[in-house]
Amino acid sequence: MSELNEKSPGLRLGRIAGVPVYLAYSWFFITVVITVIFGMQLQRTAWIPATTAYLLGFICSLMIALAVLIHELAHAMVARYFKWPNSHIVLTLWGGHTQFGSFQATPGASLLVALAGPVSNFVIAGIGWVAATIFEPAFMIGAILNFVIYANLLLGIFNILPGLPLDGGRLVESAVWKATGSQDRGTIVAAWVGRAIAVGIVLWFAVIPLVMGRALETTTLVIGVMVALFMWQATSALIAHAKLRLRLPGVKAGNLM
Asked: What is the DSSP code (8-state) at residue 248?
């Protein structure tokens, strides 16, 4: 969640519930990556033709985009309840984000807006599980439905981890914010926790398997490293921005001149 940028963030898809939705051009890159990786894995493990495997891979990438869109819409709808201004949604290389105009937030509102996203993913996973249990769909539909269930579970669980830029980081940020009266100090602490999570992802998917003599899983390794790099870049920007805002009250006009 950040302030609204006047520059167009990508291809405008339209509005959902009055919220503008954009597709960042970087999304096409990650869609190709997911389609190829999932297609190769499905072809190897499910013994299905290449065309079917890559088609399923592409559908899986679309299901991820849909899950992220619903996740971000949940943020936007709860933010609307708190009268946060000018929201829009951007589907990006790394998933998506919801941006807002300039406003004054409270720790409680910030936390509720953040947690709305993961909750929406858990709801989708629950609905998918009920549908799979009742209808027992055929192979193609069943494979897609199972992917929707697990993708939303993973998206929800991952996003409640307590470090920025993940939604769960708002819990740490809000706690420090409440204790110190400074959102920026809360942002810095939560961003450092996010950095620790990024390091943990690399250790889990790359270092630990090598130390234990296990073969590296290409799909999880590539996605894990990409997510860790994104988190490190995002936390670096958050820390720098928060430190700058902490210094602003002490800056004098004479120093600026």
From this structure: G
Distance CA 200, CA 233 (A): 15
- Angle value at C-alpha 180, between 173 and 110, nearest 5 degrees: 35
Contact criterion met (CB below 8 Å) for 50 and 101 = no
**Catalytic member of 6, 72, 173, 217:** 72
Q: What is the pLDDT of residues 235-247, one digit of tens each?
A: 999 999 999 999 8
The Cα 37–Cα 27 span in angstroms is 15
Annotated catalytic, 217? Answer: no
Please confirm whether the linkage preceding 49 is cis (ω < 30° from 0): no
Q: Both tokens of residue 33?
A: 């990556």
Q: Count of H helices and E strands in the chain?
A: 9, 5
Torsion angle in degrees (nearest 10) through CA of 202, 205, 207, 209? 170
Three-state secondary structure call for residue 57 = helix
| pLDDT value at 257 more than 60 | no
CA angle at 115 for the pair 63 and 233, rounded to the nearest 5° = 75
Tokens at 112, concatenated = 């509720």
- For residue 104, name the pLDDT band (cuts at 50, 70, 90): confident
Confidence at residue 63, expressed as pLDDT on a 0 to 100 scale: 93
Is 90 exceeded by the pLDDT of residue 3? Answer: no
What pLDDT shows up at residue 100?
82
